């Protein structure tokens, strides 16, 4: 099977499909045909034998009735040779004899033969000379042969040789005895062939079957409506007195023989079945099944080719990448499985360190996607597939909601908490594995809080999920932490609203500190209870403030539109409009520090004279865009300053063995994920890889420019296991540090 290793993916798929198809369907079809053929033949044989037995029983039952009629003759005083020969008494005797014929429709005529008068036969019609009967029935036997036939002491059925082919008659002679057992007379029953044909009609009507009756003289009596050349073959076998076989072959046809013998009557019943005709239907079905299997094979081949081409795409991408980086291989070459496996194995062996980097980047990628999703930066749903299990991604019943957990109760300072504590909390929460819900978490940037995105399939109520979350937090932290819960949505891309709502709900705890779980849906939404009763929608106000604080322009504009619609609906009078517009302006006034030189206050002064909601909304939209733009610039500036400080710190402390990702996280109050994200954006590598590269370059520089001992150079750059670093240096550079110094001097 070495040739299979040289096949590409398309050839391999086609070959494997045809091979397994042939391996399964061809033996199955052969077995099915053999068993079906055997079953059909067995059924035909049993059916034929059953009909043959029924016909034999019916025929011999009629002969038995004739035997009974004949046995009544000795006790009938009206019938005797003397009375039949007497001219005066013959009429009465013939009338009595006529009753025997009328009692059975099977009989055409009855004759009586007396051994004492071997020249005549007596019937209800009178006496007949034996020679006249021979001429009348066109018999080819002599008078003496007929007398011998009539003198037999046991019943005999025979057709006796006759010249006519049609209108053939059959003879059944039954000897009668007197009370002393002496042969008194022989009753000869004449039976027409039409009666026999009706009797054996069930056998003669079957298309592929022939029925024959063999008498004591080995004469073949045919009762089949179809012409057959089998009679000559049978006649030869009986003439040669050979044993009748179970199967007879004649030309291209094979016949199966069913035979039953009656020794007392010296009769043999034969039913011969044409096997080819009997199996014609099953052969036709088999041919159709072969065509069907071939059709399935062709369709399967097309489908296999299509699926192979579909599955070939990732292989082709890998193949093109390998060929692109392998200058020794032509670009149009198609790699076999063996070549592809060899090249991938070599690539993985040479880049084994990539595995560790990928593992390190996996949490960062997931948290980065979650951060982009919550802040509205991610609008491609296909990129979110890695966040949750496939059962949640593929279900139409999945719903999502955001949860923000305040960490102020357990933090050392009111504004920050260590990355180590956040990791512990997330690890504890991730250990909770359920089939009906799943959550992922990250540190809430800019807040001393933790954000969870929860996916649920609605089989468990939201309150039960949150109770389980609270229990886990109490077990880990020792205290119940305040939790804000946003609204539920079926659109994963819309969870940015749920995140802002969770922040708004958590902010509301300062007004209501009697509980630990705060739902955005439970916040006062504002309502009109009468003509002058009115309250402001604090839930939407907090949501707007949180979205402006985060610089999320999309959510802020949508929330502003909701607030304007609320005013149009509930604040119809000018006095209420003026109050409501001041409420909105006061909300934006909280962000005056973000805009330079009191720009926000100047914009708000313009709004004092506004007298309709449309103009109010336009001005507030402009303010929203200005604030979010300023927040974004501020964040970028802070990020830029942070990056400069971060890299400066690494550059200054690269040779310290205490410089780790965890120590860096504590120094800058950032999560390890955030630091890795910054490193990836700026250097396209991880912190560990970046630090190793700096140390490697510093060691190379010292080896070339100084005469310090190699051990001291290595240890002064953060490595205290000299032998381990020497092996690593050789793997990366290709030579030992000593050889490197010699080469470059």
Automatic annotation (TrEMBL):
<dbReference type="InterPro" id="IPR018062">
    <property type="entry name" value="HTH_AraC-typ_CS"/>
</dbReference>
<feature type="transmembrane region" description="Helical">
    <location>
        <begin position="288"/>
        <end position="308"/>
    </location>
</feature>
<feature type="domain" description="HTH araC/xylS-type">
    <location>
        <begin position="644"/>
        <end position="743"/>
    </location>
</feature>
<protein>
    <submittedName>
        <fullName>Helix-turn-helix domain-containing protein</fullName>
    </submittedName>
</protein>
<keyword id="KW-1133">Transmembrane helix</keyword>
<keyword id="KW-0472">Membrane</keyword>
<keyword id="KW-0812">Transmembrane</keyword>
<dbReference type="InterPro" id="IPR018060">
    <property type="entry name" value="HTH_AraC"/>
</dbReference>
<keyword id="KW-0804">Transcription</keyword>
<feature type="transmembrane region" description="Helical">
    <location>
        <begin position="12"/>
        <end position="34"/>
    </location>
</feature>
<dbReference type="InterPro" id="IPR009057">
    <property type="entry name" value="Homeodomain-like_sf"/>
</dbReference>
<keyword id="KW-0238">DNA-binding</keyword>
<dbReference type="Pfam" id="PF12833">
    <property type="entry name" value="HTH_18"/>
</dbReference>
<keyword id="KW-0805">Transcription regulation</keyword>
């Amino acid at each position: 099977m070495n040739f299979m290793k040289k096949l590409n993916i398309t050839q391999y798929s086609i070959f494997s499909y045809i091979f397994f198809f042939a391996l399964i369907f061809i033996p199955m079809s052969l077995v099915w045909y053999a068993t079906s053929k055997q079953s059909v033949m067995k059924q035909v044989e049993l059916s034929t034998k059953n009909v043959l037995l029924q016909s034999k029983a019916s025929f011999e039952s009629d002969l038995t009735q004739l035997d009974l009629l004949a046995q009544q003759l000795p006790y009938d005083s009206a019938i005797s040779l003397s009375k039949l020969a007497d001219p005066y008494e013959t009429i009465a005797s013939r009338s009595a004899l006529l009753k025997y014929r009328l009692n059975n429709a099977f009989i055409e005529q009855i004759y009586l033969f007396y051994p004492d008068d071997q020249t005549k036969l007596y019937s209800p019609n009178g006496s007949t000379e034996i020679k006249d009967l021979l001429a009348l029935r066109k018999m080819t036997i002599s008078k003496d042969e007929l007398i011998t036939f009539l003198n037999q002491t046991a019943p005999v059925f025979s057709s006796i040789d006759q010249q006519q082919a049609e209108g053939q008659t059959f003879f059944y002679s039954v000897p009668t005895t007197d009370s002393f057992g002496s042969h008194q007379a022989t009753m000869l029953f004449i039976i027409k062939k039409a009666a026999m044909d009706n009797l054996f009609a069930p056998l003669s009507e079957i298309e592929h079957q022939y029925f024959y009756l063999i008498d004591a003289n080995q004469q073949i009596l045919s009762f089949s409506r179809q012409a057959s050349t089998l009679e000559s073959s049978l006649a030869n076998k009986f003439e040669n007195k050979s044993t009748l076989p179970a199967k007879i072959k004649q030309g291209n046809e094979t016949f199966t023989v069913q035979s039953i013998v009656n020794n007392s009557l010296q009769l043999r019943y034969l039913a011969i079945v044409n096997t080819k005709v009997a199996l014609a239907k099953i052969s036709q079905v088999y041919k159709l099944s072969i065509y069907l299997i071939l059709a399935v094979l062709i369709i399967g081949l097309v489908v296999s080719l299509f699926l192979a081409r579909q599955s070939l795409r990732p292989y082709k991408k890998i193949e093109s990448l390998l060929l692109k980086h392998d200058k020794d291989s032509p670009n149009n070459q198609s790699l076999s499985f063996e070549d592809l496996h060899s090249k991938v194995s070599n690539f993985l062996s040479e880049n084994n360190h990539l595995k560790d980097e990928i593992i390190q980047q996996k949490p960062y990628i997931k948290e980065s996607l979650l951060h982009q999703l919550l802040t509205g930066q991610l609008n491609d749903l296909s990129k979110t597939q890695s966040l949750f299990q496939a059962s949640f991604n593929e279900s139409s019943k999945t719903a999502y909601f955001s949860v923000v957990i305040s960490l102020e109760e357990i933090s050392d300072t009111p504004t920050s908490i260590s990355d180590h504590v956040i990791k512990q909390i997330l690890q504890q929460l991730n250990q909770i594995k359920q089939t009906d819900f799943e959550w992922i978490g990250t540190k809430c940037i800019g807040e001393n809080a933790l954000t969870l995105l929860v996916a649920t399939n609605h089989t468990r109520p939201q309150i039960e999920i949150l109770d389980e979350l609270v229990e886990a937090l109490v077990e880990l932290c020792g205290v119940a932490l305040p939790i804000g819960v946003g609204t539920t949505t079926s659109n994963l891309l819309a969870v940015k609203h749920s995140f802002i709502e969770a922040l708004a709900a958590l902010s509301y705890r300062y007004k209501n500190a009697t509980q630990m779980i705060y739902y955005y849906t439970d916040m006062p939404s504002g309502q009109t209870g009468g003509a002058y009763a009115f309250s402001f929608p604090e839930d939407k106000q907090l949501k707007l403030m949180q979205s402006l604080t985060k610089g999320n322009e999309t959510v802020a504009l949508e929330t502003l539109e909701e607030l304007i619609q609320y005013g149009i609906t509930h604040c119809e009078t000018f006095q209420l409009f003026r109050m409501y517009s001041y409420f909105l302006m006061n909300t934006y006034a909280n962000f005056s520090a973000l805009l330079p030189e009191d720009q926000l206050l100047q914009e708000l002064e313009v709004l004092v004279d506004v007298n309709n909601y449309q103009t109010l909304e336009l001005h507030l939209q402009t303010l929203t865009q200005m604030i979010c733009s300023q927040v974004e610039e501020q964040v970028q500036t802070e990020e830029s300053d942070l990056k400069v400080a971060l890299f400066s710190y690494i550059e200054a402390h690269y040779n310290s063995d205490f410089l780790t990702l965890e120590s860096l996280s504590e120094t800058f109050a950032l999560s390890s994920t955030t630091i890795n994200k910054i490193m990836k954006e700026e250097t396209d590598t991880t912190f560990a890889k970046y630090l190793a590269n700096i140390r490697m370059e510093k060691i190379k520089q010292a080896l070339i420019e100084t005469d310090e001992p190699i051990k001291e150079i290595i240890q002064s750059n953060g490595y205290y296991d000299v032998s381990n670093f020497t092996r690593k240096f050789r793997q990366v550079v290709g030579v030992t540090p000593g050889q490197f110094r010699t080469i470059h001097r």
